[in-house]
Design a protein that fits this description.
The structure is a homodimer. In chain A, 31% of the residues are buried. The termini of chain A are far apart. The first copy, chain A, has helices at 7-23, 28-35, 39-51, 67-89, 94-104, 110-126, 133-155; strands at 55-56, 64-65. In chain A, a hairpin with a 7-residue loop joins strand 1 and strand 2 (64-65). Chain A is mainly alpha-helical. In chain A, helix 1 (7-23) packs across helix 4 (67-89), helix 4 crosses helix 5 (94-104) and helix 4 (67-89) packs across helix 6. In chain A, strands 1-2 form a two-stranded antiparallel sheet. Chain A has 2 domains: 7-73, Arc Repressor Mutant, subunit A (Orthogonal Bundle), CATH 1.10.10; 81-155, no CATH class. Chain A binds a DNA duplex through helix 3.
Chain lengths: 156, 156
DNA sequence: GTTTTTTATTAGAGTTCCCTAATTTTATTA
DNA sequence: TAATAAAATTAGGGAACTCTAATAAAAAAC
């Protein structure tokens, strides 16, 4: 069964996953850099994640994920990507979207995540070139709506 | 300027605000009940919120909000309501929406919150009776899309 | 192959938020 | 009003996550 993991543990696992994607393994300082915490904090967390069976880690060694760790990390990453896409659909600037997707990726109910996912799928398909025009117009209209709001705010 | 408050402090302030809306003042046990924490925990937090100037509180007395506390609580509540409406638009069941709106109401960038707000406004206006048909059709289509997905999942 | 620099680890401590158990104050009711 | 019940408080402690400062190990440079 799936042991419940804290949002912070998810952050560490996702980070390790992303580093591994780049260079095959992670080092304490890579994680420290990406999560902006001190190396000593990372060491402590790696020991904990090792004890819980999420990472392969020995003192002074490089770090990889166990199958269980990879499973958690991939789930978190999928959620993250969904939320990032979603935020971009509702026209949140990309840098802010990347940051806030991290806030959203933890602790939401699976039903909520499912609906976010469907929404993103729906909009993606609905705005494809081969779809009825009225569907494609939707994004256009929302964009216009936001532009008007922005202009009014500047004038006021 | 605005002192930064933790998500948890926001929770307490919103809860006090909601209780005050009902009966004019809050008691330790009201907050304890609503947030599902022990009374001793609430006492500790009330002392902290009093020291920070967010609540009016004396030992054994009833609790109200200072103007600063009310300001924070109202901001949190507005965000909460926006997220709840939003989740209902994307067809999250109401009980889950209420719960997850609490998760969303903290720590998102103001730009993100602005876009959520606009999205809710846009959909609300777009689906009003006096709007072009193609706008109203949007919700209908999304609902159908979700129903199909659900049916496929049951069959599979 | 030393010396120097970088990286990693340990020890000890702080913050936030929560708890239990014991006690005190306030409210109720007999 | 005295006895009882309910509510609030205090003391002491724990889990999660973070830090600094000191130390140790590994890697790089000489």
């Amino acid at each position: 069964m799936h042991e419940s993991v804290s949002g912070r543990v998810e952050d560490y696992l996702r980070t390790v996953y992303e580093i591994i994607e780049q260079k095959g393994y992670a080092r304490i300082k890579d994680i420290s850099r990406d999560l902006e915490v001190r190396p000593s904090t990372v060491v402590e967390m790696m020991r904990k994640l090792h004890d819980r069976g999420f990472v392969v880690y020995e003192k002074y060694g490089s770090i990889t994920l166990t199958p269980e760790g990879r499973e958690v990390a991939e789930a978190v990453k999928m959620r993250h990507d969904t939320f990032k896409k979603f935020l971009e659909i509702i026209l949140v600037p990309e840098d802010v979207a990347a940051k806030d997707a991290h806030v959203l990726e933890h602790r939401l109910d699976s039903k909520t995540i499912l609906q976010f996912t469907r929404f993103v799928e729906f909009i993606t398909q609905a705005t494809a070139a081969d779809r009825p025009k009225f569907m494609r117009r939707w994004m256009e209209q929302f964009r216009k709506y936001c532009e008007e709001k922005t202009n009014n705010r500047i004038k006021a």
